[in-house]
C-alpha cells in the first residue's frame, strides 16, 4: 500500500496554493473540469514523489464551514523556527508555536490545521517561540 494524497476543499485556490508554497510545496498539476465546474490542484514536496495534497475547488460554492472536521496534514521541516518565521512574516498565524523546538500548528486560508514537525532531533528552545502563547485551537 502507498499513500497517494489527501483532499481538502478550498474556497480560494490562489490563496491556498500560495499558503502551501510558503510551506515549501510545489504545484505539480492542475485540472479544470468545465462540465463539472470544479478544479483539482495537486501539490507536493519538491524531490519527494510521495503523497500529495489535492485541493478541490468547486466553482459555485459560497464558503465551507467546519474545516476542523478534516483533522490536519503533517509535514516534516528542516528548521521549524525558520519555517514558522517565514510563515509569520507572510501573514500566517502560528496557532501553536514551536516552543519545544519540535512541533507547531498553523492554519490554511480555509481553516485546515497543518502540523509542522522538526526533522531529526528537537531544536533547543529559542525566543520568541519559547514564550509565545497559543493563539487559538490547533
From TrEMBL:
It comes from the Bacteria. PROSITE patterns: VOC. Pfam families: Glyoxalase. Residues 2-119 form the VOC domain. Coiled coil: none annotated. This is VOC family protein. It comes from Sphingomonas daechungensis. The lineage of its organism: Bacteria, Pseudomonadati, Pseudomonadota, Alphaproteobacteria, Sphingomonadales.
Amino acid at each position: 500500500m502507498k499513500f497517494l494524497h489527501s483532499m481538502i476543499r478550498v474556497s480560494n485556490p490562489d490563496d491556498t496554493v500560495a499558503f502551501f508554497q510558503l510551506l515549501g510545496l510545489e504545484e505539480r498539476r492542475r485540472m479544470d473540469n468545465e462540465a463539472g465546474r470544479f478544479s483539482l490542484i495537486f501539490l507536493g514536496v519538491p524531490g519527494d514523489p510521495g503523497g500529495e495534497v489535492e485541493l478541490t475547488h468547486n466553482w459555485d460554492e459560497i464558503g465551507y464551514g467546519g474545516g476542523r472536521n478534516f483533522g490536519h496534514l503533517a509535514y516534516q521541516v528542516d528548521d521549524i523556527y525558520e519555517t514558522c518565521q517565514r510563515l509569520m512574516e507572510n501573514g500566517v498565524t502560528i496557532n501553536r508555536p514551536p516552543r519545544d523546538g519540535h512541533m507547531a500548528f498553523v492554519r490554511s486560508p480555509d481553516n485546515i490545521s497543518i502540523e509542522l514537525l522538526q526533522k531529526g532531533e528537537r531544536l533547543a528552545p529559542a525566543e520568541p517561540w519559547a514564550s509565545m502563547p497559543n493563539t487559538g485551537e490547533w
